[in-house]
Amino acid sequence: MAEFTKVTTVDKLPPGRGASVRIGATDVAVFNVGGVFHAIDGVCPHQGGLLGLGRLSGCVVKCPEHGMRFDVTTGTSPGAPPGGGLACKVFEVKVEGDDVMVSV
To answer: Among 83, 48, 82, 55, which Cα is nearest to 69's?
Structure first.
């Protein structure tokens, strides 16, 4: 069974925003896309930028370091061929009451 950790609350992460959090030794980027929460690996696989600090446009975050883009719902880079390009691990998210919970 997956173990979930509270990372924020619904009111602290409004739609269209992201945040960087740390769960144990894992950096996680959490995003609110139109009221639905998503979480991916928090460190860009390209140059190590913190994705939670990137600009979110729809469901795509742009890394603040070098501009790589990742779909926060799939972890894939838009436009990359299937199975190709850089990708981020996607983590399971659930909301319990006002708490946003992530399993790494």
So the answer is: 55
Beta strand 99-103 with 5-9: parallel, antiparallel or unpaired? antiparallel
Structure tokens at 102: 């992530």
Give the CATH H-level superfamily of domain 5-95: Rieske [2Fe-2S] iron-sulphur domain (2.102.10.10)
Dist. CA 62–CA 69, nearest whole Å: 4
Extents of the domains making up the chain: 5-95
The alpha-carbon radius of gyration of the chain (Å, integer) is 13
What's the whole-model pTM score? 0.94
pLDDT: which is higher, 78 or 55:
55
Q: How many Å apart are CA 82 and CA 89, to the nearest integer?
A: 15
